Structure formats: C-alpha cells, structure tokens
UniProtKB/TrEMBL annotation:
Protein name: GNAT family N-acetyltransferase
GO MF, one example: acyltransferase activity, transferring groups other than amino-acyl groups
Lineage: Bacteria, Pseudomonadati, Pseudomonadota, Gammaproteobacteria, Vibrionales
N-acetyltransferase domain span: 1-150
Domain of life of the source: Bacteria
One Pfam family it belongs to: Acetyltransf_1
Amino acid sequence: MLAQDVPAAALIHQVAFPRQQYSQQWLQCSFKAAPRTFCLVAEKRGEVVGYIIWAQKSGFRPQVVLELEQLAVEPSHQGQGIGRQLLTDSLPLVKEQLRNQGSTLKHILITTRADNRAQNLYRQALGAEVEATLSDLYSADEVIMIARHIDV
C-alpha cells in the first residue's frame, strides 16, 4: 500500500466493515504504523480492489505472532479469488520483512465474526483453526483462529 492508495482502500473498508467509523483515519493510522504493520493492496487495471493488514503482536520479537488484522475486497470483485491471493501473495513478502528484522513467523492470529464464511478461507489458505469463541465481543460472537508453527 502506498499513501495514495489509502483513500481507495478506505472506500472498501467502509463497505466491508459498515459498523466501523472513520475508515480513512483508521487505514491511515495502520499505514503509518509500519514496520509494526504491513499494509498491502490488490489492484486490477490500476484500481485498488482489496487490501490486507498484517500486524506484529506484543512487540518486536524473534518469533513473531502475526495478526491478520483486516482483509477486505471490494464487493463487485468478491468471489474472484482476490482475498485468497492477498493472503498467499502477501505472506511471503511479510515473512521477508520479518527476516530482515531478524525474526521468524511463529503463529498467525485471526479474530473474526463467528458467522463469517471467510473462516473457510483462513483454514484452507493458512491452516488456521478456531481456538476460542468470545460472546458478543464487537457486533456478535467472535472466534479466535490460530495458524500454528508457520516457520518455527
């Protein structure tokens, strides 16, 4: 993600996460939080059609627990494999950045609504499994998924 991509990604954020507010400010903060966060976009014909945010948890560590903080695809482009491609194409880039800071990836942490069908994608693409369910955390029940021992 480049600074000029933030407004387009914010429009996707607004649609994907309608209960959240201040989309542009949220994404701007995430973008500026590098190297704690890694923000990447998917483009089609020069247009931003999706984005992903990865975040290092609990400080810079030799073995990183990485959170898949957000993944969103513009509705008219959903169902075309863009979300999966964001996951599979961005993770090697993030791992390279972690290697550059002297770290390896230990686990991936994902929190998502219990009724989010993207859980299947996280299982298939990352090997993530539901570890816990938290009742009424944000707008509904949330599950915590973890993909364990990615690089360790």
